[in-house]
Amino acid sequence: MSKGTVVLAYSGGLDTSCILVWLKEQGYDVVTFLANIGQDEDFEAARKKAESLGAKKVFIEDLRTEFVEDFIWPSVQANAVYEDRYLMGTAIARPCIARRQVEIALNEGAQFLSHGATGKGNDQIRFELTCYALYPNVKIIAPWRIPEFYNRFWGRKDLMEYAQKHGIPVPVTPKAPWSMDANLMHISYESGILENPKSHAPADMYLMTKNPEDSPNDPDVLELEFKKGVPVKVMNVKDGKSKDTPLEIFSYLNEIGGKHGVGRIDIVENRFIGMKSRGIYETPGGTVLLKAHLDIETFTMDKEVRRIKQGLGNRFSELVYNGFWYSPECEFVRHCIAKSQENVEGKVQLSVYKGQVYILGRESPKSLYNEELVSMDVQGDYDPCDASGFIKINAVRLREHNRLHGFSGTKQ
Amino acid sequence: MSKGTVVLAYSGGLDTSCILVWLKEQGYDVVTFLANIGQDEDFEAARKKAESLGAKKVFIEDLRTEFVEDFIWPSVQANAVYEDRYLMGTAIARPCIARRQVEIALNEGAQFLSHGATGKGNDQIRFELTCYALYPNVKIIAPWRIPEFYNRFWGRKDLMEYAQKHGIPVPVTPKAPWSMDANLMHISYESGILENPKSHAPADMYLMTKNPEDSPNDPDVLELEFKKGVPVKVMNVKDGKSKDTPLEIFSYLNEIGGKHGVGRIDIVENRFIGMKSRGIYETPGGTVLLKAHLDIETFTMDKEVRRIKQGLGNRFSELVYNGFWYSPECEFVRHCIAKSQENVEGKVQLSVYKGQVYILGRESPKSLYNEELVSMDVQGDYDPCDASGFIKINAVRLREHNRLHGFSGTKQ
Amino acid sequence: MSKGTVVLAYSGGLDTSCILVWLKEQGYDVVTFLANIGQDEDFEAARKKAESLGAKKVFIEDLRTEFVEDFIWPSVQANAVYEDRYLMGTAIARPCIARRQVEIALNEGAQFLSHGATGKGNDQIRFELTCYALYPNVKIIAPWRIPEFYNRFWGRKDLMEYAQKHGIPVPVTPKAPWSMDANLMHISYESGILENPKSHAPADMYLMTKNPEDSPNDPDVLELEFKKGVPVKVMNVKDGKSKDTPLEIFSYLNEIGGKHGVGRIDIVENRFIGMKSRGIYETPGGTVLLKAHLDIETFTMDKEVRRIKQGLGNRFSELVYNGFWYSPECEFVRHCIAKSQENVEGKVQLSVYKGQVYILGRESPKSLYNEELVSMDVQGDYDPCDASGFIKINAVRLREHNRLHGFSGTKQ
Amino acid sequence: MSKGTVVLAYSGGLDTSCILVWLKEQGYDVVTFLANIGQDEDFEAARKKAESLGAKKVFIEDLRTEFVEDFIWPSVQANAVYEDRYLMGTAIARPCIARRQVEIALNEGAQFLSHGATGKGNDQIRFELTCYALYPNVKIIAPWRIPEFYNRFWGRKDLMEYAQKHGIPVPVTPKAPWSMDANLMHISYESGILENPKSHAPADMYLMTKNPEDSPNDPDVLELEFKKGVPVKVMNVKDGKSKDTPLEIFSYLNEIGGKHGVGRIDIVENRFIGMKSRGIYETPGGTVLLKAHLDIETFTMDKEVRRIKQGLGNRFSELVYNGFWYSPECEFVRHCIAKSQENVEGKVQLSVYKGQVYILGRESPKSLYNEELVSMDVQGDYDPCDASGFIKINAVRLREHNRLHGFSGTKQ
Q: Where is the signal peptide, in residue numbers (chains A, B, C, D) (predicted)?
């Protein structure tokens, strides 16, 4: 008798194929789910593989549009960056995938969810917190944290043997000496030879961006149009080519950014579980968007609103990195950030060249920029004498402090 | 009879030359002060000019080393960036200059300080807050905020006429259609034709960095060594050239960064006085350092210490931008940040190419990175089962929330 | 010929009566405006006085309900407290009054607004920032900052003489040796003999609260019902008396709080202009509400949402204290805080006795409190083993830190 | 053969006595440790009990002075309060006790630590994080999280039976219908009949404070003297009695605070593990100190330093509540807070009466309060005209916002 139904996040690779078979061995009915979030994959081959390995049902779904609209766009509004550098391409994909997986489980009456994430990483947390948040009574099966599983499959060799024994097709090409995770937003590389933080990444590792040294000698110039803090149109100024749906816009930014080698970083980051890990990321379109959004946001948003909003954006980034996309606090923060974006509207011109994005200019019907007010040549509605009082009052406190304590500023 | 002595921040240019003469006209004895903080200037010509215009005393001083050690280094420790992009090359130069100007005033028994900053900008504030903090009883004369002065000198033509009348040498080359401020850390460009936020900056405007399109086709690879969060050595990996004093290190980073077109930004920023202004900056060495410091800091600092420290760093940036370098709170924040840097030590390798800085690897005797702990291949002192409990407990709250309110995550 | 029309915030007292006459002397038409925000005042006498002194038009308006609904309620939602203690009864009244004053000015076609606030205080700022925000082209006349005025009226004696000369009724009772500001929310006392921060406040100074030593020996027990973070009903548990409109609820809380001597504080606070001042406040109803709201909020709101919301609440308090109620950032913060209050709903029981408020219990249909989950006696849906993993993972970072640096915790 | 030595945090009560015997049953040598942190306890009886139950070694140590100096004083400097109300008497005691327990374990060569904290609470976390931080390789035995233990001892009846069978003295008085934790700083009450958040706490529950209704009708007036943010002397103004060592000062504040019923709160709080729990606390001396420290701190500390410091204090409170006293970030925060306290010095007079603390006045040689500057009667070194410019410049942004967006402030 079946122990019940488990919906397995299935990639088609060796690991999750073995997990599929192993779960069946343990007495579960296995439904597989493979999300298309923009990774380069032979989805039909994966379907056949899952079926041939005994999956009760196979779901393969294109989530690319909702990935862009529901996950990338809010991150753009937030200027979401973890620890000052990482744009979180993986972190925002997990809740997108897990959300659909929960829906399938609910529809299929499955009590169990399973995945192939390892026990030291962030992804297990992001995946499972989403599942618990959306399906509180679910039971999670995480084989890489179950001693009977991980003690049996100590290394890749054990998986290969198991695969051969159970008719699981064994990969013919050797595994890369690192692991990677790819989606529409980015590719991440970690582990293996990259674990030594001192060693340089191989030049041929990158799949999504050209090596800047090999990228074109001519920049592309883009005009990005924003409404409510998200792009509604991108236009290539040279050839007039333009895109205006979320998926097309983002894909086009990936294309241009990738062509010019934009968005590569090599960092050591702090995982939620408290260890430092080295990760290398390429996020071409996301990097272009971050720069453009920063520009139009500062152009149109009040200074003090922006200060508060940036604090919320930092909080958003931590929450998302740690797996709390579906938490009350992250929903609250997203609501507040979205509110702040109501007037973030206008066009940004930028050039993309040799790994870099250069902002060239911007315009907006909603800008708080007042050319006359700021001008050095005309006075506008501004009395310079006011600045004297402003400075004097700001100095009251500083002078009082000096009166009592002196200052270490001047050398004697 | 003299109204007293005024120490004037003197640049040698048309504006402050006219101010010098005007102050004398008003009945003051004028002492001029010109700081060498790395700008490209004919200091001897400026001395002669000041003397010929009747300065009672002329001070020209090389502050470059203290600018690097006392102002740039703390900013590096803080990862100081204003509004996510501006590295504040001007903001940190003002207190450096004003500090010395106050010392001169105290030594010379001058009751007045004067400067040529305009009435709409940040610099007047940065300058004067430093003066009031260090010399609370000082009187400030800011001609561009005095109606008798600014109504008389409405435009450049008025200054020219005044100059001719008073024997002030008139510049023979036409003024650039923008204003700029240069020092060791950066050059800023604003005003004039740049006031239209949509118009692109002219390609030939930049003086400190090569246009990336014209920069070398070969990257330079540097190794930067840090102690207590500041660089103590830079080495060019290709030719073995190295520098190890603060001023030499920073100048070399400027040279390499400038050669490869690193550190250009075009932004609209929010001035302290509440108006938006468009500024273009090039900060070659500072940009290299920011990237390298971010890397070594995350590598060596505890995650949660860093979160708190980054909050302080953001506060530091706002304070410095607004002119509060010499304030009790900024001194407090600098103390805390310096404390956080005690173990920020190690070497970062990076390449500089076509406007971009790429981190290649890092090593440190003080790193909290534990290759065994994080490894995918060995378990280290880590039990993956613990992660299950960690996730379950983190989910307690999320599940309770769902129990009561449900979640908007799943679509029906 | 008239210089134009000025709307003067008129209190009926000596100062603003003199200002009224002085403004007329200066050539303005003067419209007076007196807001009833709950202070104890003979409004009809004030009307007659203004008319007799030559006011072109006299507005006296009851703003009590909008003061409670539009200003006190959002402050309750925010748990608004400045510098950990001050509930800001004056700070929230200023924008309420100034808002109406602006409306009158716009309706009357007045280009000028005037008030009697002093040049060292916060109120001038709160008043004027509201005016500039709502009526950007307004001109403000602040006599206590105009040398011709303040040099003429150096002390109270000068005002008295001026009054006598111009037929302004002179107060017959001697002025209290401190100044006060009263409204529905609080009375503040400052200046005069209170300026010495060491001297104790006289026991007979307080007008809104009983001295706790003289208050009843029996507590009152109230039940406060909240919806969306604001009270919708208060019931006295002993006598069953209840109130359910905003103004009645708040007035009743003042009555009960005042009767039991609740809400007195004696503090030194930091004014926006950077000086420290000593203030004594009594805020009976507001103090009861703060305690009750804190209780129901923590009971019903997710922990992490509340952390973020409290940060916004602190920001709100600073903004309001400094006079930025009508600023884009304060509007933004209010929106976010209101969003957080959607489920802050339920009943709190509390007793009020001898200056103190004691929370006794609470209940809510929206509570995230789960008695079974937290129980020591039943397990609920909770596996204690999970806590081991939770702790171990939280310790990963601490152990790594010890590994590298050791800890100063243990003594040798 | 012994499995090794375990140091057990032993209270002398039924639970930890059973754990002692059970650990021996499991094959461990058991060393017991009982800390005197001010709770009311028969320490000698506990020693004999532990010895009679087979403890290999019994440690009973007076940690009261180090509890005050190393844990309560830093909390006073931080104004440490969790979720706006809880003074964390339990949270700061755990690391104090665990620190000594680790030292004993290291001295005794024990590889194991054990405690009787439950699996749903905060204390297990606070205890264990301290142990892991100070003794990274320690193994923790938490019986209430071990299924063999907690399934065997399902209720108190099971413990009683086990006790009788193993010669453990059984308590003769019935257990109170709640649990409590007492130390020098506070007593907490929770669980049992208190788990219903609506039910009122019994009046006779409190052991450390008088019921305010039964407290004296005469206030006590104290003068508290601070240096570097901690009290160095307390004097009773009426009888001249004074104390000047940390333990005596704090004990005396407990005595006076307790006599007048100060420091009772009834709250629902958020535990680190994500559940809400109801707790009732009485913290007499701590509450007096919090109020006095807030007063002298605001009196002597620069406004903006204090803003930053309060942010750090909030962070400190969260860290301590969650058990991270011995973490790199909490050490960092303590360092920064201590730095901020350098000039927090002076005397505060206050009265204590019927559950409330009233600040009466304060003085300090380090105060930034400037009576002349703030005076309404003299001008001091202050020009009121400056305020006009200050306000106008602060309004620039607000007027620009109105120019573009209008404001919702005025009703139409």
A: none
Name the active-site residue from B123, B181, B220, B295. Answer: B123
> What's the number of domains chain A is made of?
2
C362 close to D197: Cβ distance less than 8 angstroms: yes
Residues B195 and B120 in one domain: no
Say yes or no: D366 contacts chain A, CB-CB below 8 A. Answer: yes
Tell me the per-residue pLDDT of D221-262, one tens digit each, with 9 for 90 and over.
999 999 999 999 999 999 999 999 999 999 999 999 999 999
Of the candidates C130, C61, C62, the one whose C-alpha atom is nearest the C-alpha of residue C98 is: C130
Task: Check C404 against B366: CB less than 8 A apart.
Answer: yes
Task: Examine residue D146 and state whether it is found in any structural domain, yes or no.
Answer: yes
Strands A139-141 and C179-182, by their bridges, are unpaired
The nearest CA of chain D is from the CA of A393 a distance in Å of 6
In this structure, the answer to whether residues D21 and D164 fall within a common structural domain is yes
Burial (CB count <10 Å: 0-12, 13-18, 19+), residue A173: exposed
> Model's pTM, two decimal places?
0.97
Nearby residues of A48 by Cβ (< 8 Å), 6 or more positions away? none
Angle between helices C328-340 and A303-322 (to 10 degrees): 40
Q: Is the CB of residue B260 less than 8 Å from the CB of residue B353?
A: yes
Please provide the DSSP assignment of C355-412 as one string. TEEEEEEEE-TT----HHHH-SSS--S--HHHHHHHHHHHHHHHHHHHHHH--S-S--
Please tell me what DSSP assigns to residue D70.
I
Pairing of strands C276-282, C187-190: antiparallel
Q: Write down the catalytic residue from C123, C181, C220, C295.
A: C123
| B48-53: Cβ within 8 A, 24+ apart | B49/B12, B49/B17, B49/B169, B50/B10, B50/B12, B50/B20, B52/B167, B53/B17, B53/B20, B53/B21, B53/B24, B53/B166, B53/B167, B53/B168
Residue D204 lies in a domain: yes
Amino acid present at C395:
A
Structural tokens at position C300: 């019903």
Contact D48, D232 (CB under 8 A): no
Could you say which of C273, C339, C396 has the minimum Cβ distance to residue A275?
C396
pLDDT tens-digit readout, D170-215? 887 888 999 999 999 999 999 999 999 999 999 999 999 999 999 9
- Assess contact for B119 and B150: CB atoms under 8 A: yes
pLDDT value for C148: 94
Radius of gyration of chain C (CA): 25
pLDDT of residue B25: 96
CB hemisphere CA count around B73 (13 angstroms) = 21
CA dist D175 and C16 (Å) reads: 68
Let me know whether D28 and D109 are in one domain.
Answer: yes
Q: pLDDT category, C30, cuts 50, 70, 90?
A: very high
Q: In this complex, do A407 and B199 lie within 8 Å of one another by their Cβ atoms? A: no
In terms of Cα–Cα distance, which of C193, C353, C242 is closest to C288? Answer: C353
CB contact under 8 A, D308 and B328: no
Same domain assignment for residues C133 and C263: no
Burial of B107 (0-12, 13-18, 19+ CB in 10 A): exposed
Q: Where are the beta strands (DSSP E) in D12-55?
A: 29-36
Tally Cβ neighbours within 10 Å of residue B154.
Answer: 11
ipTM score for this prediction: 0.96
Residues C253 and C110 in one domain: no
Q: Are the Cβ atoms of D299 and C219 closer than 8 angstroms?
A: no
Q: Which of D254, D243, D277 lies closest to D207 in space, CA to CA?
A: D254
Burial B74-88 (b: 16+ CB within 10 A, else e): bbbbbbbbbbbbbbb
> Any idea which residue has 């970062």 for tokens?
B348
Which strands make up the sheet holding D242-243, listed edge to edge?
D242-243, D230-236, D220-227, D346-353, D356-363
Percent of chain B with pLDDT over 90: 91
